[in-house]
Amino acid sequence: MSTSAAGAGPSRSNGSSDADSAKLAVLKELLYERCREEGDMFSQDDLLRMEVIPNRDLLLLARVVQSLSDDKLFITMREASGQVLWKWRDKQEAHKYKQCTTDEQVMVYSLIDDSGGDGIWTQTLQKRLNMHDSVLKNAIKQLQAKGLIAPFKNVEHPNKKMYIKASIRPSDRATGGPWYTDQDLDEAFIEDLQRVVFDFIKRQSSYHSTHAGAAKAAHGHAQVPKKGIIKGGLSDAAAKGKKRDATEMEAKPVAPTTAAKNPLAVSSSTAAASRREPALLPLPAGYMAYPTVRDIARLLSSSGITNNTILSEGDVKKLVDVLVWDNLVEPIKVAGKVGYRVSRIAKQSVESWAGREDPSGRSGGPELYISPLTEAPCGRCPVFDLCEEGGPVGPSNCEYFKKWLGKEIF
Amino acid sequence: MFVTKHAAELCALLVNDLYGELPSRILAALFTKGRSTITQLGLYTQLGPRQIRNGLGVLIQQNLLYHHTDADTKRTTYEANPGACYNLVRSGKILEMIESQYGKAERDLVQTLLLLGYARIAELTHAYVSRAPRSNGHANGNGVNGADSGLIESEAELHNVLSHLIRCEIIETVRPQSFRNPNDVYHEIEAEVTKTAPGEKATKTKIDQQRQIMEQYRAFKDQPKALKRQLDQFGGPVTKRRKLGNGLGEEDRAMEDDMPPLNPNVVVRVNYDKCLVELRSHRLASFAKDTLGEVTGEVYRTLLGLLTMDVSRCRADPFLGEESIAQQATATTMDVYEHLDESINVTTGIGKAPKDKIDYQSAEKIKTAPAGNDLMADDSDEDPSGPFDSDDSDDMGTKGSFSRRSRSVSKTNGARPTKVTFEDAATSTDNRLDQMRAHLLLLAESKHRFVRHCGTQGRGQWTVDFDQVMERLRETELDASIEQSFGRHGLRLTRILREKGKLDEKMLPSAALMKKTDVQAKMLAMQMAGLVDVQEVPKDNTRVANRTLFFWFFDRERSQAQILDDLYKAMVRALQTLQVERHRERNILSFVERKDVMGKEEEVMTAEHYNKYNRHLEEQNKLLGQVMRLDEMVSIFREY
């Protein structure tokens, strides 16, 4: 009724059009609120079914929706089948559109808005909008000045200039997940985490045998946590790990003192423990409590080493996989579940690897099998391919062999 | 055997070192030119026929050549035997192994045979009998003969030792045929069998022919063992191998007293194939020791000793195929227990865990067939019907307390305050058996698959899938050398490629958790070294770089071949460095070689010279030791 009246008499008095727009505003508000309550996406039928629009008036609905879209409260979408759907937008977000003063800005902003957490490349913007370069640049500049968008770097395309809405965080895909800090792979973080994980697996997958009182004096309580019931042991280890790692990681400049103390302690202990060194022993076959990825993830999250980065189980699996590829730990399947244990257990030291300032990174670290080939000069010779008797380098004038044999170079 | 330049160089160098320059030059010519007659050799080496004959004589005496006289043309051709040449470097190792496994007398005999190349039994008898009164006056001068050195002193003893070694396949008989290249023999047999007379129809089927070829070839291969079989018939089953390190050799040999005397005209030589089997067991045991610990390694060594008793070669003959090692030996827990050295303390070496943390079903799982390559794939079926379930868990329980007692009670891990139960000596045998079994189970569980638990008789049967274990060992060696030349990251990348096959360049950084640029730098370095390679797959025919996929891959066979050649080269260089050192110190060395100086160097030489001499000896030890270690790796990649 009223729509027909409005349609029939556009030249009616101001009063009626005021009433009309007031009614429209109410309907808008109603529909918007209903949509927010109901869900995510709506087709025309869905909107009608809400019974906000009196008499299921299609024209009125069209006006309301159009008005909502103009206010950027509704996003219009098209399904693959061709059906048109609407999505509601947050009022605050919608308000941002109002800050865009020109059409160009609105267009640019809406594209950036659509791209969400992944961001959008300037080249893509230009291609989509078909704008002149300077116009686009101007729009971007203004949007940036208003604090609506922000430039950011995507780890997958580090050389592309990308923009993202200033109000949201880049997605995991764009930042590279927990392994990236400021778009760079945080290798120090990964390395330290690997050491912590390695130490944990080593502790949990081996039997720590100390012989008699020899080791007691020097090592004392500095030793790795005892193997106990796994639950207690885990929290115990976690607490311990947290304490040590936090101090070590935070206090890097101070660390040399502790690092200097460590070798001292070790050497005195070796002196004290005349022959019977504490050693790691393999656990009997069928041992079920080898740490799983879940255990490791739990350790990492409960210890708080990762600061504010949250590692999912998948992330931890990645970390452990790398350790497996490095030949440091090995998977073992017992009773249908995959746990991890340290490789070459008989040769591993009881010291922990993490939190050491040793630049070589070897002390306390994993003991790897040394190939006889690389022990001799030839295996590491940089000119091995050239080496030939009578050539520029050869056995008769080999510097490396001289050094290896302990001869001074005269 | 495939001979690379460095392998040939190494062989020539070894021969030069041991037998002088003349044989070495001839050998080098044979390596470069292939099969030759004497006239051809004269052309290649610019030596007179007389010298060549001398040189060839030495080489043949040492089994370093194949030679063959064609029946029709009466021409004799000579061909280098690279395997035998290379084996020269192993003499020391073989002798050491013989001494530890069989005893001093056996070692002495093998040493003599190695020096002589091959010898008639009559000659050996003569040599030993004539030498008997004196103490051992060998050129090598092993002056460590005590009174009870266990050396051979009479003819009867010699024959005993000899027949013992023949029956253990360490020594084999030599026939004219032994000097023929097995490849030739095979092809000759093949030609003989498949040849049809003119007008005769080829009636035999292919399979029939193949079988015939195999039979004849096997007969050829078994020739050297004819004497062994003959001896076996007289002497019942082969006497058990002596246990490690104890000196009970006399009784062993005494049991063979009723042997028929050996035919003095039989010619014998050392069988390297069998020696390699023994060396392989040794290497595998130290591999186990390295991964799981000392005691476990010893248990493994005992098991290997039992399993390889009848294995005469490490790898199946390429012509005979799989058949020769088809029937796989197994040993029971009881067997291993009986042969385990008393002095090994099996209570140590394995940690203990609470009983409820042990899953006996998966530990005791019987695997009747060699597992596939995938570690995770095989345990999907959990059959709960393990026959050991109940009684074994009990045993393990007592074991836990037992080991606790045997070590000290004051442990850091005294979390469980349970009272130690002291067992009486009566149950200790049982305990020992169970503890040893625990070591075997540990070996079976390892990712290297040292042993396979293949049956339940005699408290469990065990076997070793040598192919698989050796593949793991090779892998370990390869990994180690990659790790040390390209760092942990290099190893990581190659291992990813090995696991996943060909991999897109873009996948690598995220899998390895490395920076893209680092990955690229590493991959390039490794590509230069020939470890990895890249395959380009263009998406369209423009073939521009950004429309192309790059797949990295790791070629295992090629890298193994490459590392083998590097090993040869490293060995050559070490030996050459030794020569350089010898040349540098030639004055002192020639002085030391004088008869009046030998044995009392310290008194005769000035302090300065004596120190220099000592330093040279140290360097020599270091270099030769290195060569031996490299040889260990060569064997892993090539022979074992």
From TrEMBL, chain A:
Main location: nucleus
GO biological process, one term: transcription by RNA polymerase III
Biological role: DNA-dependent RNA polymerase catalyzes the transcription of DNA into RNA using the four ribonucleoside triphosphates as substrates. Specific peripheric component of RNA polymerase III which synthesizes small RNAs, such as 5S rRNA and tRNAs.
Subcellular location: Nucleus
GO cellular component entries: RNA polymerase III complex
Disordered: annotated span: 1-20, 241-271
UniProt name for this protein: DNA-directed RNA polymerase III subunit RPC6
Pfam families named among the record's database cross-references: RNA_pol_Rpc34
From TrEMBL, chain B:
Localization of this protein: Nucleus
Protein's GO biological process: DNA-templated transcription
Highest taxon of the lineage: Eukaryota
Keyword entries, A-Z: DNA-directed RNA polymerase, Nucleus, Transcription
Acidic residues composition-biased segments: 376-395
Coiled coil, from the record: none
Predominant localisation class: nucleus
Function: DNA-dependent RNA polymerase catalyzes the transcription of DNA into RNA using the four ribonucleoside triphosphates as substrates. Specific core component of RNA polymerase III which synthesizes small RNAs, such as 5S rRNA and tRNAs.
Name this polypeptide is given: DNA-directed RNA polymerase III subunit RPC3
Organism: Trichoderma harzianum CBS 226.95
Lineage of the species this protein comes from: Eukaryota, Fungi, Dikarya, Ascomycota, Pezizomycotina
